[in-house]
Amino acid sequence: MSQALTSGLKIGREMDPDLAMLTGEGAQQRVKQAEPDAGSIVPLWQRISSRPAESLPDYYRLPLLKEPVWIWSVPAYFYLGGVAGGCAVLAAALPGKRRFDALASWCRLLACAGVTVGPALLTWDLGKMTRFLNMLRVFRPSSPMSVGSWSLAGTGMLATLSLLLGKKAPSSVRYGTALGGVMVAGYTGVLLGNTANPLWLEKRRLLPPLFISSAIASTAGALELLPLNLHEEKVVQRFGMVGKVGEAAAMVAMERRTPANKEAVYGFEKGRGGLLWNAAKVALVAGVVLDLIPAKSSTRRKASGLLTTLGAICLRYALLETGKDAAREPQAVIGPQRRRMQGGE
Amino acid sequence: MAECHPVGFRWVMEAKRRGATIIHIDPRFTRTSAVADIHVPIRAGSDIAFLGALVNYIISNDLWFKDYVVNYTNAAALISKDFQDTEDLDGLFSGWDVEKGQYDPASWQYEGVEVSPAAGHREMFSGEPRAERGAIIAAEKHDYTLTDPKCVFQILKRHFSRYTAEVVEDACGISKALFEKVARALCDNSGRERTSAICYAVGWTQHTVGVQYIRTAAIIQLLLGNIGRPGGGIMALRGHASIQGSTDIPTLYNMLPGYLPMPKASYDTDLQKYIEFNESASGWWSEFPKYMVSLLKAWYGPAATAENQWCYDYLPHITGDHSHMVTVAAMADGFVQGYFVMGENPAVGSMNTALQRKGLRQLKWLVVNDFAPTETAEFWRKAPEIASGEIKTTDIATEVFFFPCAAHTEKEGTFTNTQRLLQWRHKAVEPPGDCRSDLHFIWHLGRRLKELYRDSTDSKDRAIRDLTWDYGSKGAIEEPEAEQVLAEINGYDSSEQKYISGYKELKSDGTTICGCWIYCGCYKDGVNQPARRKPASEQNWVAPEWGWAWPDNRRLLYNRASADLEGKPWSERKKYIWWDEEQKKWTGYDTPDFIVNRPPDYRPSPDAKGIDTLSGIDPFIMQAEGKGWLYDPSGLLDGPLPTHYEPEESVLKNPLYGQQCNPARMEWVRRDNPYHKAWGDSRYPFIATTYRLTEHHTAGGMSRWLPWLCELQPEMFIEVSPELAELRGLKNGGWATISTMRGEIEARVLVTERMQPYVQNGTTLHTVGIPYHWSYVGRSRGNAANELTAFIADPNVSIEESKAFSVQVIAGRKRSDRRAAAGGPLNESDSGGPERDHPPVQEKPGGKHGLKAGKTELTEEA
Amino acid sequence: MTATGFFTDTSVCIGCKACEVACKQWNQLPADGNFFSGRSYDNTIHLEATTWRHVAFVERSLQLSGQITARPFSWLLMSDVCKHCKRAGCLEACPTGAIVRTEFESVYVQPDVCNGCGYCVVCCPFGVINRREDDGRAWKCTLCYDRQKTGGEPACAKACPTDSITFGKLDELREIARKRLELLHSRGVHEAYLYGMTDDDQPGTGGLHAFFLLLDRPEAYNLPPEPAVPTKGVGASWGTMGVAAAGMLVAAVAAVRSVEGGKK
Amino acid sequence: MSKKWSLRKWPALRQIAERDPAGLGESAMSERTRALKPRTADADRVVDSVCPYCGVGCGQKVYVKDGKIMDIEGDYDSPISLGALCPKGSASSQLVAGTHRVKKVLYRRPYGTKWEELPLQKAMEMVADRVKKTRDETWEEQNKNGHLLRRTLGIAHLGGATLDNEENYLIKKLFCSLGMVQVENQARI
Predict the structure, then answer these.
(1) Quick one: CA torsion of D125, D128, D133, D139, rounded to 10 degrees?
(2) Do residue C110 and residue D39 have CB atoms under 8 angstroms apart?
(3) Which CATH class is domain B21-239+255-284+558-563+607-641?
(4) I need a surface site. Which of A268, B386, B393, B713 has the fewest CB within 10 A?
(5) CATH code of domain B666-861
(6) What is the pLDDT of residues A260-298, one digit of tens each?
(7) What value of ipTM does the predicted structure carry?
(8) Of A42, A56, A89, the CB nearest to C216
(9) In sequence order, what DSSP letters do the residues of B794-855 get, joined into one string?
């Protein structure tokens, strides 16, 4: 600790350990670079005059909220969680017939992989392996992330169990895994909906359906890339179609802007968020179109699977990026709240 | 005040909570303005016009405090019939001496009387035998009806009659309405029931008429009866922990401890003469000899005897002005070899830093004591002229010693804070490495020098050999005992080593020893009084048992004025000190600043001497006649009454008189200190004023190294109004180059409505606000504001004018090829333009180092 | 233990930033580095993982009632801090239990527990708490929990020269605030109002334990006008998730059945 | 931080034990949090001091442990400041314990291009020699009018106004007795 301290002290505090005692609460805060990323602020002052407008809509256009700090691995986890959930459910739905064995075992494998690789990705964001264990320190019903972590852990165990036992797994395990899978696939939607982020907050009712339908789509997309027999293919395709249609519908609804939320629903057309969002849309639609072509060809199937997967991944990154954009815009927070107040009065 | 003294401002806000009206007068809208009731943006350098108008308002509307003014001030005194006012001479007073290039104040005196001022330039009144003057004082002529045209009140009335609200509009850019709001608020809150206080800082002092700014405030406060009363007064907000102490125990060329003047070569040829010139026949300064002899005994101990005039001859004699800027000019001309700079950073904090560094380059050796090498210590490698290649480090011969100093937590000693309060600091930790206190440095230097001179028989070395220097020391580092030094400052009885408990005990027969008479009693009974820390919650609101205030632990000076003629408080609300008829003594919440058993009805007999000349209604005991001076019969070099003069470099012609500037001001007419035109210099069309920010400290030596402060104000910037920004194409957050004939700097631009232009008779005047904290070393850097300023000073105290001068501002960064830092004009000097002075004044004799000033003996060396 | 908190009276704030430095000094937080923002005297810009008190400088071309100036202008100064909400977004979102409600009812982040999941960052409706990238954990004002443990006063409140920041028992603070507001109104400062003092003032958060007296709309100081703790409406999300989840199960079964049925 | 892991310390179990379904409070606290106390609680001593910045003279309390500065904050007892400090005063601990502090005497020889370190005693000796040499060379006994001068204009001094009274007193006393008259101070600037 003291080592970390003395090194950290050099920057920002510039206290000489020979002359000063460093035991303050913040003294443990490790600092690598002296300056935080001023980049996000520097250009602003050229654009903004320090001379205020007559009425003050905001504080020098500075962000009112903090942006999400999550890195690339989090959306990736969202995707994997979706696939895992979908597979778990499908696995449970399949009858124990031999012609579905391949699909069933693939599902078990993917479900198990998803719920184990997922946490690994989360840990990547946290930085330290042991840090993930803290997720299981308490159980907080108020926190979707807490609920999610526990379900993830539970599902993880069940999925592993059903993978090991395979066909011999008792139905309780199979159905348990399925239920856990639904949680894993869906809680992430609630997790985003349960934030102060103006965009996510605005669309809090839509996010869970979006995530779940997209989870179904992603599952199908992933399975479509695997060698399966005709029956299995049919099951996957039909299962997937439900998800893809649902996902498309949810995405359209997400984009809907009303005078009430015009500043908040933001970034779907511009910036990196917009790009990803549109890519997701295109990929999804293309996937569906391919599915509808009657011709039987494994390349068509694989292409559709690839597009769907791509779309599902883009969608999750798009949500993070557009969320960042929304957090950066003070009016996205102020506008809707003001109107709610006036409405209230 | 909120900017530079936030915790002092705590009490202003407390007063506001209780309903006080806060008026803030400043060219900028500062953190003080933000919470003030009234903010008055004034053109920098025009305060006397504003304050003078307040005087006029008070008198013409008959709002002055009658009983107070008639009895406690010199309003009734008659002035010599030879006196002529600026009214009669278009901005000059009578007595301008063309030969000497200065005023002869004889005609300013009281009718038939010669009085000595409580402070200021004693050399200015001729030295007749004391007794005579004492006698005349009692016979001073008065007109208590205040109607005699020669009485102070009438002269005051005439003098300020032209300072009208209209003049305020033209000279200060303040609307009549706003002025009247201020005037009314001030008068409504003065009188028996209420008092008003005036706080100022260097925004008032750093002008060529700085002293007269304060004088005008004094006149206002005396007229309103706001001096010597609780909630009244004029407060100088000191910018440093012990700036007050540094003048009480002065490291100033013209003073010895306790405001005793340094001997002057051509007057004070021996102790007798010295005392004659500096003692007053009446008032408290009649005690002068006691203080001087006790000081000499403190310094030279047994060697000081009546026979050898208590070693008076050991003291060096001054010949005119040896103040900071004069010294640096001499330095630049190669007349100074060695320079000690202790905890000071002139290469950033002083005027015309290029000239400062030029001075440093001419030195043989330089000693700097500080936390880390400052710009002054680094001048030979970190300076604009080095960066531009104008000067090569390898051409600089100066030998530089940097001594790391101990922090305030690593040594013990006293600060004298702004309210004359001595507070003792205990030592918390040992200084690291070779860091030492300045006390350690000076004491050990002294010991080494005594050693070096031990065997000398040369008479010039007697002073060092006889110097008493035996203070105990402690610890491995041999830190001298600060408490023993404090004890000597307090003084003790030479015969029986008993500590003196007050300056009244001092004697002139050599039996008392005292290092600084006004500090007498700070070590009363061997108790370290400044170390007293009785919690505020456990004593009355005056808190007399926290630290120790000079003189005699008085918290409010001249507090006898808080009571009326009979010695009763003017009002219950403003009760402070009163006469207790039973005990036959003055009493109250504070130590009475008066002869404690002198009844209000006491009147001196005509032949009274010394302090017996003070009557029971003479609260201002330091003055010869015990009255507050509305009019200064002597002591000031630039006139008995404040008069509005424009700054050396102005944007306006003096709207009141033909005389543009203070005739007695000090000018340095030299190539490396060029001045702009008197006014309307198209090359330098804007007003500039320098100042501090809350987040930094003066020249930055104590703040520019601290990340916690640097992040709050990270780099040098200037403040301009949106109007000026538009005019000069300045972008908020962008760069600007600011220049004068002395130098050129670049800074970030902060465009803000807190700066605002003044429209004065049709012309728009813009002000550029320039914080002066930054320079070339430290963790937060920028160009130094004082690259721009010039050597130019007030005649009375030689303080520079940095609060109002003219500059040019252009958008963009500084051009690197411009070379001025080494000290030559940036622009070809342009001698033309309007005159600053009336013809007789123009012929000021030039002194050494290009110095021109109306100051006694200045030219003797030339 | 009774609830304690801050009452920040912006009408007496002189923007000296003593609170910012006193906080960094006590907690020994690093400086954020030198950066000139060009936004009045605000160079630290916002509350951060490293800046737990932040002074906002609002320059307005508007007169403040009760103040006389040469031209319509006023400078509003305000020391911002974590609000320690009665219903705290960060607290309710924290999955690790790193963020807890203390015996003083303040919201405290336990640096030894926080795993840096970053969920609190997006859940604070005031944008207060943040994760310091090179430290990996979330940080914010502790309301000097350590000092309070032995009855001490938070560093910022102690340092504040004009008592713009007052610390004390919540109910007493509310009384002081009400009195102060009355006084200001009686002196004609009509724009003065209390921000987030009680549940009624701010139902979304159930009231703040660090509340403010403001002189302009909240957004002028970069405060949300009507913040709400996210968890308040989270039921809706769980609800739609339930429906969608059911849909998912049905879809799976249906997909399988349809194929099975096709066989017969 | 937290000591060895025992199941009883597991907050999730504590939640059940303490019937605390929400898990927002005490049950979620770590050992460190429970033991938390102000860092100044174990100071060796608290020293009364005065802020070194402006002239207001705010009281300071200096907390010391193992000869190191722990904390510098305001003094509630001071009638001047009642515990308050401005940003500069609050940063005092960084001023006195910052890495900017130089701990050795530095010397720049004539025409030199860099600082060199010098032992304190040696440096003091060198300065004393320079003072004597310059003083002896530039001594003025009297001026042309035969008035006594007894001084040197060859050496000057400029002091900061953060010097203690005791320091100023010795400076004035010594330099005056050396015959230096150009003894000046921030007080004029």
Answers:
(1) -170
(2) no
(3) alpha beta
(4) B393
(5) 2.40.40.20
(6) 888 888 778 888 899 999 999 999 999 999 988 877 788
(7) 0.94
(8) A56
(9) -TTT--B--SSEEEEEEESPPPTT---TTTS-SS-----S--SS-HHHHTPPB-GGGEE---
